[in-house]
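for the record, two folds in this file. i put them one after another cuz i was lazy. first one right below, seq on top, structure tokens after. the second one comes after a little note so u can tell where it starts
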Amino acid sequence: MTKKLQNKISIIKNHDEEATLELRKLLNNDNVRVHITKGYANMYFMDADVLSANIKDDGKIRYYHTHMLMIDNDTDIKDIELYIDYLNLIRQTMTKQTESKVVKILEKYIKKTTEEINKLNIA
């Protein structure tokens, strides 16, 4: 693995951790995690998507709520209880005040990650 690629992975990992900590604190939920890549971010509850964001060509952030969690007749009751927590998190993130804060945090880390990766001159 090249040094530039190692640096890119390190940048992404560090920003994932920083953004995750900020959002966990804001939402008071330790089941939230964030994954940032160059130009994009996803917020998850456990392994279920909650919100995705990306930077448009004009530099403005575009975001959308994603509610994807599969439940069927074989789903364990603990998973259904987690689903209730998931829905509560979605409700919380969809309030205008919280949504704005979440998007600002994601935007900050998308831009920070993109800028640092661009400095490495790799895709």
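(here's the note) second protein begins now
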Amino acid sequence: MKFGSQLSQSIFPEWRFYYLDYDSLKRQLKTRVDGPATPFNDQDEAAFVEFMERELEKVSAFRDIKGDELKRRIEHCETVVKSILATEDPDEERFTRLDEETTRIANELSELSKFIRLNYTGFLKILKKHDKHTAYMLKPMFMVRLTSRPFFKENNDDLIIRLSKIFDVVRNRGVKSQALGIDTTPAQSFVRTTKKYWVHIANVTEVKCIILKYLPVLVIQNKGQAAQPSVSSVYLDNESFDLYLGRMESRNNAEAIRFRWYGNSDQEIYVEQKVHKDDYSGESSVKRRFQIKEKYLDAYLRGENVMERQIQKLRERKSKSEQEIKDLETLASEIQASIVEKKVHPVIRTIYNRVAFQLPGDSGVRISLDTDLVVVREDNTGKTRSGDHWRRTDASSASEFLTQFPEDVYSFPYAILEVKTQTHLGAQAPSWVEELVSSHLVQEVSNFSKFVHGAASVFENRVPLLPFWLPQMDNILKPEPSNYRSPTVLDHHRSLIGSRSSITTKPPSPTKSRSASPDAIEIVVDDPNESTPLLGNSSTGSGSGSLKKRTSWATLAETFKSHHQQPPSPPVVIPERLKENLQKRIAVPVRVEPKVFFANERTFLSWLNFTMVLGGMALSLLNFGDRIGQLTGLIFTVIAMLFMGYSLYLYQWRVHRIRERDPRPFDDRWGPTVLVLVLFSAVVVNFWMKFSNPGDLLFA
């Protein structure tokens, strides 16, 4: 779709006279370039620049006026909230009017964000078209004018936080969230899920406005300090990227180690360890951390015992129990031992701004939105960056790194939405959550990791595996459906009359399938047969995958092909920017269900059952048969023992392949065929020996 059509369809009707007049600018440019025989001259350029200046002034002025208007309306709502809270028995009608006004403000704030994005894009588009069709280069000069009127750089996070507080009052009808109580249902009665999504920058404000209608902004700050949305983490790995590969392949007990701090202060650092546990292990993945002073961190990395003094102070202050102190000491020792053993060192740093949404004391739904993610190299390959220190000291903020060391920085183009839900067994997540994650505003990316993506981006030529979501990076912006409607607070409140529970038994909305997305990896398999793997693998092969009609002899001959021959890999659609890394494998997530291990065990028991029956028959012949029966029993005994060992080997081989998440087929081509041939041969030998001695026959 051309930008002019997109702009006309996206215009907010009430503000239609304040948008960039893109069609008139385009028409003026086209008329003057394609119309008269004389070329585009200085007078034409001056007229075009003057038109652009007027449009910039119009858009920028409206942005300032509308922003101030929204601030004043929010201040008025805050005054109304104070008045309502001061009343002992507030009128329901006042809550309704307040809800309607705050909903309008949230919708207009979302539309204002779209207004800014569309107009800024329009200016860039028309400047590009001008420089392409004329002999004048206007873009460099006009970008300076855009910077002087930075209507596109306004941050509305403060308005969103203030709106969140008003919505919280409306949602709880004047009762503070902390006074609502905490659910004391046993933890075993809950199902916890965590999913991650990408959000296009154009949709960030709308997503925030939708969430704050149901969840307040969760502000976490240290005592005596202002809230800091910035989160910084330094991730560790070795030269072989063992930790990266472990997280990529989701190995059991794969770990990630990082140093994290909040805001601009790095005096208190959290040393964190995340350990992945496979589903079949019956254990849950764990995240553990402890706090350490920044001045001790370098010595801690070198393996020195720096926690002894801190632990001694804790014992003297008696601020923690003896068991908590022992757990802290054990945790610090285990993480330090892992650091020393695996020879890890700082490799990347991530910096981003986080906004969290959660009802205080309620873990039913917790949502975090991370924006402005920047990945910075911390390794010393090629040049000294962090040196022997635990982090770089030549810059501290993301803007400083982007300005001074752009070659060491990767900027993630989208925001990251993380949704954590805790629902009762058999229940669904709240309907508004299902609607949000099923909408055009987000793109699901399962198992997304900032560490994995950051390492794959800045060390693209060094890592042996690439994450599966890279082909989805090109474009995640989807058109808005004609029937899409953002829910309101009253819709939510009416569904919860008489109950504070946010759990609903309404069937979930249809969720998006990655294969249905135009940006997903497309795997095409033509007429697969039993040997075609469910997932593509790294090997290459030839031949078609079509299922052809064969005679029984052709099928039998096909059976004797090598068990290790690999089927052809299905074609995968990969963006242009990844073409240079086609020699690397893209790791596709493989979920190992417990039933896979049980199926392997059942197959082994079936083999074992057959060999036991065969062995029992052989022992009967050995003990109670004549000379020929004893020879036949000996043959069947050997066959039973051989296939008993073969079934055990096959069982162990499949267990190893399943744990390694090998996508190759697990079918056994040799075993059943050889078993049939051997048994057939044994029966033939038995008949031959019996008929070669006519005296032993009963009818002789």
